[in-house]
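Subject: Re: docking follow-up (flavin-adenine dinucleotide)

Dear J.,

Thanks for your patience while I sorted out the input files. As discussed at Tuesday's group meeting, I've set up the holo structure prediction with flavin-adenine dinucleotide included as the bound ligand rather than trying to dock it afterwards. The sequence and the ligand SMILES I used are pasted below, so you can double-check that they match what you have on your end before we go further.
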Amino acid sequence: VTTTADVIVIGGGIAGLTAALAAAAGGLAVVVIDSARPGAASRAAAGMLAPSVEGMPPHITPLALEARDFYPDFLAALHARTGVDVPLNRAGIIELAASGGQRDQLFTRANDTAHRLDERAVAALEPSLAGHAGGLLYPLDGAVDNVLLMTALDRAVASEPNIRRLYGDAHSMDFSDVRPIVQTTDGTGVEAATVLLASGAWATQIAGLPRRLPVAPVHGQLLRLDAAPVRHVVYGGGGYLIPRGDSVIVGATSEDVGFDVHTNADGHAALLGIAASIVPGVEKCPVLDHWSGLRPMTPDTLPILGPDPDCPALVYACGFSRNGILLAPWAAAQLAPILAGERRSAPVDLLSVRRFSK
Ligand SMILES: Cc1cc2nc3c(=O)[nH]c(=O)nc-3n(C[C@H](O)[C@H](O)[C@H](O)COP(=O)(O)OP(=O)(O)OC[C@H]3O[C@@H](n4cnc5c(N)ncnc54)[C@H](O)[C@@H]3O)c2cc1C
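The structure tokens for the complex came back this morning:
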């Protein structure tokens, strides 16, 4: 063993860094091990905060709304600490109906907070959406600039005296002794009271897991176009548009291709098709960027949080699936007391890995 800490965090994405900061704020000494793998999701993501459209189960929706509403204070604290002003769009998310019939269906299943938009209302809100049959507006949902957010988190971690960052690959964990040990591929051994597994789509690839984790990579490609057709995040045509500065992000494909992180012509064409079906003509604007990432997907698309039931020195913050940008900062706040030695937390219990052994 070459170094010791209170908590070892494996993974330096949004899940790992927010948890490391929350634990360090409570006075714990934290070592973050990260290898910056191609396809890491947190910078690649679209940044939507979309608890309403994402169709979560009823017992999880209140937590997802709490996670969304956690963002303003979370970003304010990050700004105070780093000087990085991370843009947050809370104009609301528009979910477009593909037809008059689908609009009526959307209106029927709309929750209390959604605003029903007919054809005129949708065009009044976003002139570029004129001609669409209508849809729903989910007020207060929106998007965060996740690239700047990751920059701010990197800075906050760098300025936190209780966090040490090791650049490398953790290849095994050993829980046979009182204090677990994590080994990296370059021969470093780190010992701590607790290990937090926050390694995204690669969570299953580490030796020493006490169980099979149901986390698998789902590849997603995105485009950024040189256009600014909308102010709101807009869902439609099997994808979405997200305003980002003077440009617009078009997302996203969902492909089961293992750990392949290449973008391709099919993805490019599919994304232009999505853009065209939301704002006809926008697909002719110059493509500024085309990239992709790996979603860490679980069977129910919800994260795995909290201690392993058989091995409580291992705590999970993984499997964030499609909503890690939304959920991870909030999840970190829920996990901090557990990393400090408390064993229970109601929201974390709801998302325990135990649910997959039933
Ligand atoms: C195309 C796309 C669009 C998305 N859009 C949204 C969205 O709009 N809103 C939303 O909320 N979410 C979205 N997501 C999902 C979101 O990006 C993820 O849920 C979230 O980023 C997961 O964060 P993470 O920290 O768990 O994983 P990651 O960001 O992937 O970080 C994991 C880190 O662990 C490191 N690592 C892995 N194994 C090891 C190891 N053995 N040793 C050391 N380091 C290791 C990797 O290098 C990586 O840096 C999207 C994802 C994709 C791909």
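A couple of observations from a first look. The mean pLDDT is 96. The longest strand covers residues 287-297.

Let me know if you'd like me to rerun anything.

Best regards,
T.
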